[in-house]
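Morning - adenosine monophosphate inputs below, output right after.
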Amino acid sequence: MKLYNTLTKKVEEFVPRNKNEVSMYTCGPTVYNYAHIGNLRTYIFEDILEKGLKYLGYNVKRVMNITDVGHLTSDGDTGEDKMLKGAKKEGKTPQELAKFYTEAFFNDLKKLNLKKPDLVEKATDHINDYIKVIEVLLEKDYAYKSNGNIYFDISKAKDYYKLSGKTSEDLIVGARSDVSFDNFKKNPYDFVLWFTKSKFEDQDQKWDSPFGVGYPGWHIECSTLASLYFGEYLDIHCGGVDNIFPHHTNEIAQSEAYFGHKWCNYWLHAEHLNDKNGKMSKSKGEFLTLKLLEEKGYNPLVYKYFCLGSHYRNQLLFSYDSLNVAKTSYEKLRKKTSSLKEDGKIDTEKVKFYKEKLKEAISSDLNTSQMLTCVYDALKDSLLNDNTKREIIKSYDEVLGLDLLEKDEKESVLSEKYILDKIKQRSEAKQNKNYDEADSIRDELLKQGVKLIDKVDKTEYEII
Ligand code: AMP
Ligand code: ZN
């Protein structure tokens, strides 16, 4: 298995510490809002990685956290706690907010056929564990108290910048810093392990601790949770590229200081999903959620298929045009795979041969588009009978999770409401003599398999 390791900046042979056992930690969502489809791209990648490793014969144990406290709007020590900000906006308590969006997140996972990690832990359930780790870091002199908060002293960390490959100067240039807050730090990138005193008076999620009443920093949550379940060593740690700095950099600094040795061998990061405005985020542009795509008539698996068409280390540009291309291909593919018949003797040698082909694609740094090519290759192999193809596709779908053998009753049918809304928009455009817009709505629907038929006094539609 070859994987690109952000730590060494190389594609490397993956060798877990304990032969066949793989420990894998993946940073979970901050549950102050729905996951946007960019976040979901990262979770799709992590799920394929987990299932791909299992396909190769590894036993994978995976842990994920749910961040429900301590993640500030800057990813560093400035800004407000995202949970608190979200709770105020929705008139809920942070706990109510966390519960709602955690469930929404699990729902998204299910719709995309993503396996729930073996352990999913709420950050707020482990406050005493963070306190214990922070006490050790203070004892070992890696941490200090200043202005009431506990900071990690990055000048004590061995090779602090090794993951990001950046220098402190590079980072300072791009940093958004809150100077008044930074005055209390020994180094600009020292980060908070425990907040007791900060500029937010009304933080209502707070706990007693030997350092004063307060709450943990985001980074210490992941380091601690990973060590609770995997001990002193971790094979794989994942996230999106925005996690490289500061989050994962700080996790490494804390964990290696705590254990006194190298902690995690492989760091894997998914590139971002962008929209035409740049990096997709929850605060700008159309807030693209899976729910929104469903309301527009897309099966969530169309979005998954769209993601799998490109490599996780490439940025991916989202547009409805490219999603529609993926939709057409996915539906055609699924029509073919789900109508494969169960007759004929399964050719086990051929099944083995094709399984090996998928293993090759998995082993090439998780080449998902090559995995899809494997599906198409098996389908068009004229030497295989239907039942053999079914067996191969069934096995591939353990990794891809695209429901390839299931018939989709709703296949290519957009929701009626969506189509009627579009027809209404089109007639309004026509009334306003906006014929370009009217035509583009008609063409767009046609691409999605809906043909409009203009009658004297109304427009009807036909699914083609
Ligand atoms: P958050 O809920 O903000 O903590 O992010 C959850 C996961 O989504 C993290 O692993 C992020 O690195 C990742 N992520 C954030 N934005 C994007 C994006 N535009 N595309 C892909 N992954 C992202
Ligand atoms: Zn994390």
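Note: The two ends are 43 Å apart (CA to CA).

O.
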